[in-house]
Design brief:
Layout lengths: L4 H7 L6 E4 L3 E5 L7 E7 L15 H16 L7 E4 L3 H4 L8 E5 L9
Antiparallel strand pairs: 1-2, 2-3, 3-5, 4-5
Bound molecules: guanosine-5'-monophosphate (5GP) and zinc ion.
The site of guanosine-5'-monophosphate has 14 residues, from strand 2.
């Protein structure tokens, strides 16, 4: 989508600090990190929210989790631990409407989610 920030990052129109990329996903450092490790993992296909993943697109969930494993190893948080978060729509705090997974780590994260 032409007006989507994350599509622009995929296209190279907006720069990013790339962490991992394959044919299906791109992972890059969050521009406003909430933890020492804060990576955004996105499908290269534009899907607005988690609720827009069709049943015939379930491969996307696996691709995001597989990428999260790779990112955790690249960032050296696989053993120490990390958190993944997918915000959905307004009450979930979603700001960028291109499906994405946050991967946070590098410090002891608080117990609360909100
Ligand atoms: P959301 O609240 O939609 O789940 O999170 C969107 C995330 O994308 C935020 O953590 C925000 O800092 C990050 N973000 C927004 N615009 C950009 C950008 O242009 N570059 C990068 N690297 N991250 C961005
Ligand atoms: Zn997009």
């Amino acid at each position: 989508m032409s007006d989507c920030i994350f599509c622009k990052i995929i296209n190279g129109d907006i720069p990013c600090t790339k962490v991992y990329e394959d044919g299906a996903v791109l992972a890059f450092d969050d521009i406003q990190p909430m933890a020492p490790v804060h990576v955004i993992i996105i499908p290269k296909k534009h899907i607005a929210t988690l609720m827009d993943v069709d049943t015939d697109q379930e491969v996307i969930s696996r691709q995001l989790f597989t990428a999260a494993q790779k990112v955790a190893k690249i960032k050296n948080v696989a053993v120490g631990g990390f958190r993944t978060v997918v915000n959905c729509n307004a009450d979930g705090g979603q700001i960028v409407f291109h499906l994405h997974m946050h991967l946070l780590g590098g410090r002891k994260l608080e117990d609360q989610l909100g």
